[in-house]
Design a protein that fits this description.
The structure is a homodimer. In chain A, about 15% of the residues lie in helices and about 35% in strands. Chain A is α+β, with helices and mostly antiparallel strands and about 160 residues long. The interface of A and B includes residues 24 and 51 of A.
Amino acid sequence: MSYVYERPIQDYYPDDIAVCFGCGRHNPEGLHIETYWDGAEGICRFTPLPRHAAYPGVVYGGLIASLIDCHSVGTAVAAAYQQQGRQPGSEPLILFFTARLEVDFVSPAAVGAEMELRARVTGFGERKSVVACSVVSGGVECARGVVTAVRAAKLGI
Amino acid sequence: MSYVYERPIQDYYPDDIAVCFGCGRHNPEGLHIETYWDGAEGICRFTPLPRHAAYPGVVYGGLIASLIDCHSVGTAVAAAYQQQGRQPGSEPLILFFTARLEVDFVSPAAVGAEMELRARVTGFGERKSVVACSVVSGGVECARGVVTAVRAAKLGI
């Protein structure tokens, strides 16, 4: 499969802010969630480890929420660069933060089985993007999420 | 402050299932979220570590979602035992899983500052409880969540 941007969108985040537990490449203890952009959807693959259980063998919801959150924000970023006809990494920087996260847990997902997340921007405004995300594990949809992502004017508190 | 049950509700979960990354006391790498029950509200305190950042110094949303999820489920469990006039740990076991999670991120929360979560059952059915949760950091509400928790007939896939 070929993607619009060669690397996952998180690889283009500036070094000094790429520390997110979910998707920061500079967080050595983090999840290293990666969003690949195919021009219409953000695609993420992640295999939950035994420590990510809720009950033995079943993935805990907080991990799924984290995957949906970071991957949907990454998808919003990728789509915004494409909408502007620019490569990620070019100036000005495009960043989003999550204003609202909704997750429906549809069926249990197994620890050790690769999950695939597909996210799509369903609403696009000047400051706000809405992203819908589906999570599939073992060929079955295990969760659906909606993220409302807002363009960040600045970062930090 | 005195609580209805001496220990956090998660301490009463059976040993063989207490492995949740969020709230399992037997997950050595987990967050060890604890829910204390005061008879009306579940109360949880948690101090995010530097690795739990989104951007430098600011807590990442996935952690907040995880806290709301496990703490709200714990609150649903504690309230259900009280509603039945029983101590947690007595038979039959009461367990819930999360069917839906909604989080509104209201303001940034600082890494290193203790968070307080207060959760309350706002809807109580035979199989389903709805729990509303507020998260305060540094005296300011940083997030609000709603969890729809469903009584578990059995665990696992």
